[in-house]
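step=encode ok
step=design start
structure_in=
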């Protein structure tokens, strides 16, 4: 199946020092994540010495504590002295919160009897709707539809297991395409590919300029002593006024 493709791969050769190949390599180096973080990885390998009693560490801790204490007390400092008195109960946050809690409690007590009576429903077990619902549940139930087979346990070094793994590897799409993984990210020129060569050959076959030679391009020299040339010269001598 892959014999023709392997033959085509061997027949295509691109020089490694062409400008397009060099440009593709340069682009690959520019967008390479490995080269991008290379300096950072080398810096991490060198390590660092940062003691807990270092001056920058102490400064950062002190700044964090100061900022944390300031943010924690910021709202309190802004509201300090503002809630001396409220003109009405609606303006007091605590009274408004208590009124909201009382309304929610009254709504729960109002619906308590209804919620208790919702479960007090008696339906005969042989009703038509109940039987139809049971049959529908049986039809759409995944437990009754799917019967799981016995889970066999095989030793990993058995010959049939090893043969099955080899067959799975041969049929695996990842293994089938593993020889093309090294091509990912490499610059490639369409010039010289199978499709481009095929199109050029088809263009040459259909090109009328290459297929048919024009008459004016042919080198033609008439024969001086042919009968028609001699006859023409004789007629010209006979008709000449001189």
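sequence_out=
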């Amino acid at each position: 199946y892959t014999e023709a493709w392997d033959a085509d791969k061997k027949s295509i050769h691109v020089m490694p020092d062409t400008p397009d190949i060099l440009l593709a390599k340069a682009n690959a180096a520019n967008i390479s994540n490995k080269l991008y973080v290379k300096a950072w990885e080398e810096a991490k390998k060198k390590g660092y010495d940062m003691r807990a009693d270092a001056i920058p560490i102490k400064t950062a801790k002190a700044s964090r504590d100061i900022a944390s204490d300031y943010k924690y007390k910021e709202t309190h400092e802004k509201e300090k002295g503002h809630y001396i008195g409220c003109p009405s109960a609606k303006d007091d946050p605590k009274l408004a919160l208590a009124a909201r809690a009382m309304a929610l409690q009254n709504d729960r007590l109002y619906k308590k009897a209804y919620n208790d009576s919702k479960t007090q429903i008696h339906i005969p077990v042989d009703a038509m709707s109940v039987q139809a619902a049971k049959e529908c549940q049986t039809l759409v139930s995944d437990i009754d539809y799917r019967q799981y087979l016995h889970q066999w346990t095989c030793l990993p070094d058995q010959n049939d297991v090893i043969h099955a793994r080899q067959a799975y590897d041969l049929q695996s799409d990842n293994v089938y395409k593993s020889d093309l993984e090294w091509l990912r990210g490499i610059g490639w020129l369409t010039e010289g590919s199978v499709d481009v060569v095929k199109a050029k050959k088809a263009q040459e076959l259909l090109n009328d300029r290459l297929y048919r030679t024009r008459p004016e391009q042919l080198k033609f020299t008439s024969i001086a002593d042919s009968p028609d040339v001699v006859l023409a010269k004789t007629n010209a001598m006979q008709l000449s006024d001189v």
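step=design ok
step=annotate ok -> The two ends are 85 Å apart (CA to CA).
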